[in-house]
Amino acid sequence: MELTETRAKTPASARAASASAELTVVAPTFNECANVEKLVAKLDAALAGIAWEAVFVDDNSPDGTAEAVKAVAARDPRIRCIRRVRRRGLAGAVVEGALSSAAPYVAVIDADLQHDETLLPRMLEQLKSGAAELVVASRYVGGPKTIEGLDGPMRRMGSDLANKLGRMVLRQDVSDPVSGFFMIRRELVDRVAPSLATEGFKILFDIIASQPEPLKIVELPYVFREREAGGSKLDKRIVIDYLGLLLSKLSGGVIPSRALMFGMVGASGLVVHLTVLQLLLSTDLNFSLIQFLAAMTAMTTNYIFNNITTYRDRRKRGLAFVVGYVKFCALCSISVFTSVAVATMVRSWGVYPQIAGASGAVLGALWNYVTTALAVW
Questions:
Q1: DSSP string computed for 75-110
Q2: Given a cut of 90, is residue 355 above it in pLDDT?
Q3: 78: domain CATH number?
Q4: Is the pLDDT of residue 56 over 90?
Q5: Where are the transmembrane segments (predicted)?
Q6: Domain residues for 229?
Q7: Number of C-beta neighbours around residue 129 at 10 A
Q8: Which residue, of 220, 250, 280, is where some domain finishes?
Q9: Fewest CB atoms less than 10 Å from the CB: which of 81, 148, 182, 242?
Q10: Residue 70 clears pLDDT 90, i.e. is over it
């Protein structure tokens, strides 16, 4: 059961502040305890004269981020905390934070202090004037100085590639479609919320791609700062998340990004299966046993890769990893024996062993997706 923890008793002053807020700033957090007070102070200075509130959406950080937010909220009614238990993901956190708002405008900003909060008033002016429906703080307009905070050439190259791929999929020309710093009219998020992916990190791209009509977008330059505390959340798995989202949007949203990621993992499992099959064909083992061993090896690698990529937001560790593997094997055992039977039958027709093995593996992959999606994760 998924749980969301908020302050059970909200003071009347806090409720009034939330109701009258013109702008809600959503800050998704995970292990950002050291940055909470600093970010609130920066927002207070930058948004002087503006009715604002900040919603920190915390993915049950072990460093006490939620407690730090609530300590600030106890003395500042503009601050709220949503603590999410048993689920993670920046995209889902942003959606929940935005949907909790009654303000007409919503901004999204990282809690690591790398985004320039002094840009928020200008962003709000663009929305209120009608010049834009969405304002994106871009690292790619205003000269190369705007991307100084990117950590190293590899991350910069990866960011460039992500933006180029994003612009190929979107119907709009946006220089930084994967920016984590933007402001939008809240009803535009409400409109597409049911179709937004809750896993992954590229929520801005998803919001733009999900709109039924092109948005009026303005981009403003900013300098991407160095992180002051905590650690970066970027890793190779986020690249896979993004690729899955791109492919999902290319399919018109018909195929969920998680299903596409599962399919990519399954493709790697097919490679593993055929590799093991080829290696064991040189032994004296009979073909049925060889097919069984190849299928079991592929099933094991599929479980590991799906755990760290497809279901990274529900990743199992320790004992839960072992229990999940046992359940995975139990559910997939039917597909293993079915794939062995199918491959053996196809092989008996005189078909090449590689083709026979692949036919069994494909059938097993279909069963694996359905059962694991429903029961394991």
A1: T-TTEEEEEEES---HHHHHHHHHHT--SSEEEE--
A2: no
A3: 3.90.550.10
A4: yes
A5: 259-281, 287-306, 318-343, 355-376
A6: 3-250
A7: 9
A8: 250
A9: 148
A10: yes
pLDDT digits (tens, 9 = 90+) for 108-167: 999 999 999 999 999 999 999 999 999 999 988 865 444 444 455 555 665 666 666 666
DSSP per residue, 205-234: HHHHHH-SS---EEEEE---PPP-SS----
Q: Closest by alpha carbon to 220, among 151, 144, 120?
A: 120
Nearby residues of 209 by Cβ (< 8 Å), 6 or more positions away: 169, 170, 249
Q: In total, how many domains does the chain have?
A: 2
**Cα–Cα distance, 137 to 179 (Å, whole number):** 7
Nearest-angstrom CA–CA distance, 90 and 234? 11
Q: CB–CB of 373/277 below 8 Å?
A: no
321 and 232 in a common domain: no
- Mean pLDDT for the chain overall: 81
User: Residue 308's closest CA among 295, 323, 321?
Assistant: 321
Same domain, 176 and 287: no
Cα–Cα dist 133/314, whole Å? 34
Name the residue with higher pLDDT: 157 or 38: 38
pLDDT tier for residue 250 given thresholds of 50, 70 and 90: low
Cβ atoms of residues 225 and 116 within 8 Å: yes
Question: What are the DSSP calls for 186-205, one per residue?
Answer: HHHHHHHGGGS-SSSS-HHH
**Residue 268: Cβ-neighbour burial (10 angstroms; 0-12, 13-18, 19+):** middle
The DSSP H or E segment spanning 25 is: strand 23-29
Residues 55 and 142 in one domain: yes
pLDDT value at residue 5: 44
Are 301 and 319 in the same domain? yes
Residue 348: its pLDDT value, please? 84
For 208, other C-beta atoms within 10 Å of its C-beta total 25
pLDDT category of residue 341 using cuts at 50, 70 and 90: confident
Answer with the residue of higher pLDDT: 46 or 213: 46
Query: What are the CA-CA distances from residue 87 to residues 3, 277, 356 (Å)?
Result: 9, 38, 40
Contacts of 50 (CB under 8 A, 6+ apart): 22, 23, 121, 124
Report pLDDT for 186. 96
Q: Check: CB of residue 4 under 8 Å from CB of residue 84.
A: yes
